[in-house]
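Weekly puzzle thread! Below is a chain. First person to post its structure in token form gets bragging rights.
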Amino acid sequence: MNHYETFYQLHHQHTPLMLANAWNVKSAQIIEQNAYDAIGTSSGAIANSLGYEDGEKIPFSELLYMIQRIKASTNIPLSVDLERGYTDNLKELTENIQQLMDIGVAGINLEDSQGEEIYLKKLYAIKNHLKKSNQQLFINARTDGFLLKVDAPLETTIRRAKLYQDAGADGLFVTAISDADTIRKIASSTTLPLNVVGSPKLSSIQTLSEYGVRRISMVVFLYRASYNQLDRLVKDVKAQQSFEPLF
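Winning reply:
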């Protein structure tokens, strides 16, 4: 199987896909070396590591360079957090997608924070481009109704899931949910594999699997935990006036 096919199958297995999110080559290599089946990127982590705020503040060219280096240095499927696509121009969007395809990316996350009308135009543009060029890309449709506190977020999420699936999405990523009943309702309402973020309230992979979740992401939390550890180390060296904490 190619990386797209492998990545697709990982969303339709007995146990959920546990996806660690990298921000540079070294973090991606550590993820691969520890027998994860795939790598995701975190847009927030990549941006922050290069001195940018999250939310498409990083130029696409700089993001693309990081993706190139990660893909060239690892051998498992790679999925890219593409935020809103880094453009509202549909021609530019498909050009961005093609650049990712040329690198060998297996999947993307694409978020609907601009609303479903704009999102559907982007989704259709991507799918049409892939069809015309005979290429495959796993599109994880990220819907932010709960995160943005829209009216009736559960109903909105379920409705959008149907729209996005009809438009060609391969997965559904729902952010800012940690209530078990809500997760069950969303999972049972769609045949798309459901992706959520691991959280303090829902940290058990087994529990999330029982709720119907098929993919669990670490998003920016792995990056933050890593640099929190670095912060503690440099503080300990200074406080102890010794390099012993490093060894």
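Puzzle host: Confirmed. Bonus trivia for everyone else. The chain is about 50% helix and 15% strand.
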